[in-house]
# Entry
Amino acid sequence: NAGVTQTPKFQVLKTGQSMTLQCAQDMNHEYMSWYRQDPGMGLRLIHYSVGAGITDQGEVPNGYNVSRSTTEDFPLRLLSAAPSQTSVYFCASSYSRLSSYEQYFGPGTRLTVT
Amino acid sequence: KQEVTQIPAALSVPEGENLVLNCSFTDSAIYNLQWFRQDPGKGLTSLLLIQSSQREQTSGRLNASLDKSSGRSTLYIAASQPGDSATYLCAVAGEADAGNMLTFGGGTRLMVKP
# Structure
């Protein structure tokens, strides 16, 4: 198993550009989510999904869109990048087997918006 | 709103010392609590998960305890090694959020000196 994979590892965008951060998992997990990590703010939830076709907002959803057309993939779209979106983005997945909901994280995407 | 606090924010110890990292949370209605390790520039690695009905979990030199009623968890690291140097993050899932949302503490940055 590759676990949770994220691409790209690094990205530099100009203000106003759009891009999609990719996240995939091969563990057949129902739940997937996106977090951002900022110095002094910790990790905060952006969006999450409880299964294909179902998404919902987390704590800091503004400026981001998500969709979940398959169990494996959960892309995060930045519609018009802003400097405030400079951050490290982590995708996570979890499963309900044995009701544990243990969460597994990807390696992260480091995004800089200039 | 759940708040998670980790004390101390940073810790430096000589190799071989036993140490305790603390995590407190304000809302005791949790589903589980997870301890993660994060190396610089890397993703999060799950260390231990404690369900709300459990008191402790052990993995090798790590032992995590949970006192749900008082809103506290501790991570005990026995016989610390330089390879244990990393940031340790505590995260809780609320009863209504299991699988979807983790609320993270700010982390404890640990340095173990040879």
In short: The mean pLDDT of chain B is 94.
